[in-house]
Structures are given as C-alpha cells and as structure tokens.
Amino acid sequence: MAKYVIGVDGGTESLRAGVFDAQGRPLAFASSPYPTSYPHPSWAEQSPEDWWTALGAAVRAAVAQAGVSPGDVAAMSVDTTCCTVVALDAEGRPLRPALLWMDMRSARQAAQVAACGAPELRVNGGGGGPVSAEWMVPKALWLKQEEPNTYIAAHWICEYQDYLNYHLTGAMVASVDNVAIRWHGSDGPPLELLRRLGMEELSGKWPQEVLQLGARIGGGLTARAAAHLGLPEGLPVAQGGADAFIGVIGLGVIAPGDMAMLTGSSHLHIGMTDRPLSGKGMFGSYRGAVLPGVHVVEGGQTSTGSAVNWLRRGLMGGAVDYADLNAEAEAVPPGCEGLVCLDHFQGNRTPHTDPLSRGALVGLTLKHTRGHVFRGLVEAVAFGTEAVLEAMRGAGYSPTSLTIAGGATKSELWMQVHADVSNLPLHLTEVPDAPALGCAILAAVAAGLHPDIPTAVKAMVRVSRTITPDPQRHAVYRRLYQERYSKLYPALRPLFHAGHDHAPTPNGAPAVEEGASGQWAAAAAEAGEAARQGRQGEEGGGLPRAIVSPSILAADFACLGDEVERVLAAGADWIHVDMFDGGAIAGGNFTIGPPVVAALRKRAPGAFLDCHLAVQDPAKYVEAVAAAGASSFTFQIEPFLDAHTAQPDAAKRCAAAAAGAAELAAAIRARGMRAAVAVAPATGVEVVMPLADAGAVDMVLFMTVNCGFGGQSFQAQVLDKVAAARRAHPSLTIQVDGGINATTAALAAAAGANAVVAGTAVFLAPEGAAAAIGAIRGALLEHLPRATAAAHAHATLAAVEGAGPAAVL
Ligand SMILES: O=C(CO)[C@@H](O)[C@H](O)COP(=O)(O)O
C-alpha cells in the first residue's frame, strides 16, 4: 500500500516540496524558485505558468531525493500564498500576470471596501475594519476599475491555490480557508458586500464549490498533471489553503486555546477558539477556516525580524553576526537599563492597525551599547506580541501556549524573552518546515492514512522542546510593559500623524499598507501620483479610465472638509468643485472661490480637485486657482464665442473662439493644471472639437444641465454631442455633468463618456456614498468598453480612408 505523502508550500519567491511518511517524518525536500519572478518592473506580479513549472520541478526532485517510487506516493496537497489573485479564461489560462498578495495597487479600492459598511466586514476589528489592499475583493475591484476589459473577459477570478489545483485535477474549487479569512466568506459569498460595491457579478467569477481542508479534489491528478509531476494519474489531491494557516496545522495548533506564532521578517499570531469572537485590535474570528466548528483569531506585527535585521545590516553594515549580538544582549538586564523601543518600523498591523506608526528608541544614554539596542528591539517585539494578545484577551480569547516557528527560533534570547513577557510556555516542534508538513497532513487524510485532521496531527506532529516562562522576569516585564511600552504608541502617535491625518495619499487611500515592502510602497506612491494627476488609463490611447467626480455643490458646506473626506473614502476618483461667479454663464449662482479650494487642498493633499469655473472671465482666475492647489481647471467655451458675436461667419466665429480658448488652456497648463473646456447644453460640439483635435485640452465637459444648480434633470439630447466627440477621440477624457445617477451614467457611458460628475446622487444618497459611487462606476464600466471599441474602429476606418479626426464627426 502506498505510504508516503507530498506536501507542497507555494511561497512568495519559490515553491518547496517535501516527501513525508505517515508519521510526519520528512524524507526529502526540494525547492524551485519561480523562473521569472516579478516580470513587471513596477508591481508585485507573478506568472502563473511559472508556478506550474516550479511545481513540476520541485515535486520531481523531492521524490527522486527521497528515493521512493512514485507508486508509493498516496496523495499530495499544496498550500500557496493567500490573496495572490489571478484572472483566467474558461480553460484556466491567465489573462494577465497574477497580482501578488503584496501588490498594493488596490489601496484605494481597499478604502472603498472598508467604507461601504457591509455586514460581512464585521469580523475584523469588531466591525471597525480594516480591509487590506492585499485581500481578494480590493484586488478584484481594482481589476474591474482599472482593467475592465480583463475583468469582463475573466471567466474565473481566483487564487494561486485554485489555479494550481485546477491544473492538477481539472476541478475549479476554492479553499474554505482562503474564502473565510480573506474573501469575507465565512458565511458564504459576501453578497451584500459585493452589491454595495456594484460588483455582484464577482461571485459568479469565483469558483462555485468551496472545499474543506483535506477534502479530495475532483478525480485526482489528470494525465497531463501526472506526466508533469512524474506521479500516477488519479493520485488524490487534497484541498490546501493559505501557507501560514496550513503551517499552523503543521505546528499541531488545531485545538481551542492553542496559538501559533509564525516568525520571520514579521510575526503572525493565529489562535483557535471554540466560539466566534470579534473585538477591537484583532482580526477574525473566521468560522471554520481550518476545521469545521473551530474559529480562528488572527493578529500580526509587521516588523520583527526585519527590525533586528535593520540594526545588524542597515545600521552596522552586516559587520557583526547574530551570535555576537545575542551574546551581548544576554548580558544586558531586562528593561535594557532604561531603553524602551517601539517595533512599528513599517506601521502596526494589530492591535492599532496604523500604517503611519513608526519605530522608536526612547531613553538612550551614552552608556547604552549595541547589545542594549539589540535586546531593546527583541523586547519591543515581545511587548508587541503582548499587545496583540492583550487585544485578543479583551475580546475573550486567552491562549494557553504559543507554538513557535520561523526565524526567531534561532535565538534562545528571543524565545525566552517571548515566554517571559507573555508568561506562556513556548513549544517548538520536530519539523520546522511547518507549511509543507501541514500539507502532508492534509494529503494523509485524503489518502485515508489517517481518518481526520486531529488524528493525523496527533500522529504526525511532535513537540520537541518547551521553553517555560520565568515568573520573576515576567513580573519585571509586566511592569515595563504597563508603565513604558504600552504608553509609547499613544504618546508618539500625534507625531507620526502630524501632517498626515487628512488624506496623505491619493483619494483617501491609506498611505502605506502594512506589509508592503519599500519597493511596493514606492510603486503605490507612484500610482497615487498618477491618480492625483488623473493620468491612469490614458497612456497609449487605451480605454479611458472610468472616473466618478462627486460635485460638492450637493455637500453640506457647513462641514465641507468632512464631506469631501467622506466621499473620498467611499471611492470617489475626483472631487468636482463648482466655482460660479453669479453671472449669466453660472445661471446666476454665486458659489465658491479659490480660498475654499486652498482649504480643501490642505485637508485632502492627495485628492484630484476637478475645478469647474463657470465664470465670464476665466483667465482672471488662473493664477489664484493654481496657487490654491487645483488639479484641473475647466472653463466654459461660451464667453469666447460671445467675444466674437460680431463675426457673421459661423465657422470663423468657432475658429476665433477656439484660438482664444487654446491660449487660455496653454496658460492653465503652464501653471501645472490640466486644462479642460466645458460646453453648455445649447452650444454645438463643433465649437470645442478644434481644441480636442489640436490636443489643446485634456478633457471636454458636456454639461447635461444648464450651469447653476444641482438637482436638475438630465438632458439626454446632449449625448449626441458626446457620441460625436467619442467617435473622433477614442481615448480623450469626456465628462458629463448634471442629473447623473446610475441610470443616466449608463446612458452617458454608452454614448462614450468616461467621466461623470454627480452631486445629488452621491452626497445625498440614502444608501450611502460608497454604494452610489459603486453603482455609477459599475454603469460606466459596463457600457464604456463597447462605446470606446466602436470609436476605435471608427477612427481606424477614418484613418484608412484618409480622413482626419474632425472629418468623422
Ligand atoms: O455644475 C453643476 C450644476 O451647474 C453640477 O456640478 C451639479 O452640481 C451636479 O449636480 P447634480 O445634478 O448631480 O445634483
């Protein structure tokens, strides 16, 4: 009878396969790096085909090294990074590279998800969020908003995990683990959440079947997969899950009260409980993420190993090794003779969930040595874990032990300090490769070598050592924690947040997501800059980006800053600022001037301020509006036409108006703003086309109501002008403004508008701004691709026939 099992850990940079016997003893391991990791220079992406290649190489090598015959292998299982999202066609072929878990492009979408207030969000932080850009829904929403063609074409949107299992077995299934922890799906698909985001269709793109860990997938290995791995066709494949959570099984942490602490550059705390819990400062609980009937709580620290690595490499240039640092730190008494450190070098994941928090060394004197600083950082990490545990205790979860794996197990000092600070015994297990062993356990269950996961864990995981806390040192640390460490963050928070609390990043998204490495944070910042300038989707003449710009004319002016923050958090792309001078062109309404724009810029430094000046003499305000911080300056064309009323020839009158307008547009651009021209409903499209043809403006705004007031009815006849402009300019940003809601946005998008201004429908939405923006954006995304595809076809035809853009109107 076949007696060996294969566990595969699909990590961030490589994939590692292990061959184990039914008692969990490893026979061999083999790793295979992904041949072309991060093929895209700016983002965290991976090629799914690389995963497949690496899987074949690692499994073959591990089986060969173990010296077992393929026929002696009873089953296999795979874990992968979680929230590495792929878009596939119906045959499982990737439509684009996968978005790796650490890809932070979806920071704005994460803020949008968090702001929608759906009941499925309640599991985290006692309902207070957060939602990370790492997770499935923000990433899928990013695809929908930024790459709508791919999103629409995707038959499947799923995880790295699901991709491999599909190619192994031919069955497209999801893991209960991923679905519960990162898809908001403890109780089935999060339908209300998706509805509020205007993306109900996503649940149809997800795998329809969700399997328990250890369940057999389909009919086992297909002939193609068997040939690729060198294993028998039909070999059972067991459902796996997220690497860290499968690692928890490999550590034997499955019973209520158990907690695993996975250490590396960061720390992850994953605990089991027999009842659902929710509280401030912790993630979860996730029902059944590992075992049916068991709930999982989660906490984390972003900078732990990376903080000591910063000291050794960053500060000391790697000139000292850890053995020396450990020895020097051992000689320093607990409390480091007055030095207390904060471990938030890359922000804090839990309990504070504050991406702006930072590390600190407080109480330095000239007698402190590098041994003090090293110990201070180790103590800070252990205190940080205590803060995580304290939040969990507050929610009703008190772990009885910590089972530890990863980098911290290499230092006796670290482990003892952790035990002493938390006052919990620390267990180490025999097999440090916990994720691969966790998969092997699931495979053993699928193969029938053990009847269930708890029995398999008992047979395959063994505690090799326990570190017990010292009561005296615990008492010292308890006092230090209460009197010093726990006071550091609240004291320093105002400093970390100074100048940041009001939208440090584009569109209200969090500045730096926890867990983002510098490279990815920089990429996110770069994206933010593109968002601020409204540049996405415009390069290369592609599909123009869908833009929702709430008009503050419908906001409560008594608390304008709060109102703007509210719609930014709800997912607004731009903020539309109507600056009317009270004249005829503004329908007699006198609204706001540059000082208000300056105040908004201060409050929302990263927001795109889309300023529309319905004024008789726009040139007069270019300086002041630029100085106030506007991102774009839209002026009406009518004053330029009025200046040439004496000209009887209509064509000449248009040309003269266009020349004057082009001069103004150039002055606007020279002051660093985008230039746009607006057309009243009664004004013909031919007046502004020369400006667009000459590339003199960045956007054309077709007013769908007469300027002046919000709440008017949409004038559908304007759409003929929109369609004409779109036919001539497939990639131009074309905006409509007035009477816009999800229904009229759909009409406008079908005609070719990609940007919409909506006041009443967003600020006064009874269903909330996030749902309103989501519905409007959904309408744009649904109808825009066909309009722009037709425009591209039309433009191509016109070019082939030798006609210029103006001729195709
Ligand atoms: O410029 C204007 C009106 O003149 C618009 O920006 C309105 O403020 C849009 O408001 P709703 O029609 O969406 O309420």
Description:
- The chain is an alpha/beta fold.
- Among the domains are: 1-39 and 47-80 and 212-241 and 434-459, ATPase, nucleotide binding domain (Nucleotidyltransferase, domain 5, 2-Layer Sandwich); 254-429 and 462-495, Nucleotidyltransferase, domain 5 (2-Layer Sandwich), CATH 3.30.420.40; 546-770, TIM Barrel.
- It is built from 28 helices and 28 strands.
- A hairpin with a 3-residue loop joins strand 1 (4-10) and strand 2 (14-21).
- Helix 13 packs parallel to helix 14.
- The termini are far apart.
- Bound molecules: 5-O-phosphono-D-xylulose.
Please outline the helices and strands.
Elements: E1 4-10, E2 14-21, E3 26-33, E4 45-46, H1 48-66, E5 73-80, E6 85-88, E7 98-99, H2 107-115, H3 136-146, H4 148-153, E8 156-159, H5 160-169, E9 173-175, H6 176-182, H7 191-196, H8 202-205, E10 209-211, H9 223-229, E11 237-238, H10 243-250, E12 258-263, E13 267-273, E14 283-287, E15 295-301, H11 305-315, H12 322-330, E16 340-343, E17 359-362, H13 370-394, E18 401-406, H14 412-422, E19 426-429, H15 434-447, H16 453-460, E20 463-467, H17 471-497, H18 518-532, E21 547-550, H19 560-569, E22 575-580, H20 594-603, E23 609-614, H21 622-628, E24 632-636, H22 638-642, H23 650-670, E25 674-679, H24 689-693, E26 699-703, H25 719-728, E27 733-737, H26 742-751, E28 755-758, H27 760-763, H28 769-800
Parallel strand pairs: 1-5, 5-11, 9-10, 12-18, 18-19, 21-28, 22-23, 23-24, 24-25, 25-26, 26-27, 27-28
Antiparallel strand pairs: 1-2, 2-3, 4-7, 6-8, 12-13, 13-15, 14-15, 16-17, 19-20
Helix pairs in contact: 2-3, 10-15, 12-13, 13-14, 14-17, 15-16, 20-21, 25-26, 25-28, 26-28
The protein binds 5-O-phosphono-D-xylulose.
5-O-phosphono-D-xylulose (5SP) binds at residues 551, 553-554, 576, 578, 705, 707-712, 737-740, 757-761.
Catalytic activity: D-ribulose 5-phosphate = D-xylulose 5-phosphate
EC number: 5.1.3.1
Family: Belongs to the ribulose-phosphate 3-epimerase family.
